[in-house]
Amino acid sequence: MTSEHAAPPPAARQPTGRQPRILIAIPVFNEEKSVDRVLTEVARYAASFGGEVLVIDDGSTDGTPGALARHPVEVIRHGKNRGYGRAMQDMLEWADFRGYEWVISMDCDEQHEPASLPHFVAAITHGASDIVSGSRYMDESLPGDPAPEDRRRINALLTREVNERLSLSSSDAFCGYKAYRASVCAKLQLDVNGYDFPMQFWVQACAAGLRIEELAVRRIYVDMTRTFGSGLDVPDRRLAVYRETMHREIRRCASRLPVRAMDGLA
User: Fold this and answer.
1) Phi-psi region of 191 (alpha: psi -120 to 50; beta: other; left: phi over 0)
2) Which of 102, 117, 130, 251 has the CB geometry, 3.0–4.6 Å to 210, for a possible disulfide?
């Protein structure tokens, strides 16, 4: 999945077969029910490729901080809830500053399987991309759960628009299970703190000419009562916020995007 403006990868991006230094980053907010199971399983897989783990605690008010203290992980703690996008920004900055070559982001609610980590590592090691993006819709033959109708509809609408405007071929614009080349992704000017973060990220990744590939992952929904907060539980409101973030970022980056990106935008 590449944009028509993607630049040829410099020599430093070519696959070497060498095991890169990888950070696994997990944002959490009030995950006391699942954090022990997830971190134990992540540690088991991380040991096979020398991965290290960073948890971004986004202001948890339950037993999550105490649970984190029982695991050999690095922790960034926000004094208050600052949002998913802010956790992603912290993750990229930390990974680049600490010299990691790659960072894999995954959730702590058991919707992202640690068993997929080796597949991401294989794509990182043997590929030449800058982003390996998990997709829950790339391979419908994988066992999985049906997506809530409103989430599937909004994902499909915005994924289609992202593809049309940015000349991409994504099948899932919102999956949070991803691998990022730290050195290039940390240079993006990201400042969206909420769940609309992916809309800014894709526009900037395209504007920067980053190379993107997808990796099929299972579609898993564990807790159907989880909410987005900030008024985003109303589907049409969520769609409007996400779309406005995408359009605002396209206007900011227009000179580095395909001409069609600005179609219909003032």
Assistant:
1) alpha
2) 130
**pLDDT tens digits, 49-71:** 999 999 999 999 999 999 999 99
Phi, psi of 58 (to 5 degrees): -90, 55
The class of domain 20-257 in CATH terms is: alpha beta
Cross-strand pairs, 120: none
Find residue 239's DSSP bridge partners: none
pLDDT digit string, tens, across residues 146-195: 998 999 999 999 999 999 999 999 999 999 999 999 999 999 999 999 99
- Residue 190 has a CB neighbour count (10 Å cut-off) of 20
**Residue owning tokens 């959730």:** 107
Structure tokens at 149: 């109708």
Residues 15 and 33: their CA atoms lie apart, in Å, by 39
Instruction: Show the CA angle centred on residue 244, arms to residues 149 and 166, nearest 5°.
Output: 85
Q: Where are the domains of the chain?
A: 20-257
